[in-house]
Amino acid sequence: MRIDTHLHIYADPARGLYEIENFPIIEYGEKADIPLAGVGGSVDDALAALDAAGFDYATVLGSYEVPGYPDLPDGLMHWPAEPHYGQYREDLAAYNRWVCEMAAPHDKLIPFVSANPAVMTSAESRDHLAEAFGDWGARGLKLHPIGIRAYPDDPGFDGVYDACIDADVPIVFHSGPDTRGRGFSEPGVFAALAASRPELKLVLAHLGGGSWRATAAVAAAHPQVMFDLSEIVIWIGASAGPSADDVAGLVHSIGVDRVVMGSDFPWYTPGVTAEIVESLPGFSRAERDAILGENAARLLKLG
Question: Which of 18, 48, 80, 283 could form a Cys-Cys staple with 287, CB 3.0–4.6 A?
């Protein structure tokens, strides 16, 4: 079984192309000939990429950011309890419903919805997500702390985490540095959440990204946390990126059973990502199969 645990789909593929072109990946330094997917990420684009690489499933990771990506109010580390941007409540709910309805006709696609403490109160998020997990078919949550300008321990996420625990679904977090140095998604900032909410099924994306050297300590201290290989394997050999041996050593240090494969489509394709995972040194056939799908099947409770 092959499962892509980190895939994005855009209602308007022009938006996907815009994000790829205007938000370049710089945290790994320079590397020539990055194999971009070259598409905007429509449903058809995604299904074609999955079929071409022989993938059985993919989690479609939603993310809702307030227009303009406003920062936290001056002097605050967390969003106020009463959302600054509550006027977008219906937009957030509509986006999450779209993710679920878009994925529903396609057996390969598993929808993950999103939350935002600048838009909904903790209680509103809990109730909204309970409905999404209970009635809409959502199977998990995606949070991008840099995009929503919120640290993982923001009190506005309390209801979000309650809903995820109640529904027994995983949360995929973007992890890695941000250009402003705010540290919203550095691997170490997830330690407090993992310690205070050990019941949460946390998956830190990109193996820590450009901060991959800090990942091993978080993994060792919190054995329930999982990690995905999206993006970082594409940047193996970049001037500030890891080597293939670095990635393989980190995966072995974490534990093969705690690592899943993700592509970050439409930036990169499932097929190219899987080829790189297959080429990593020092893994048995059984270990490669675990990373490419079996670990994710267990996480997602797939047969």
Answer: 283
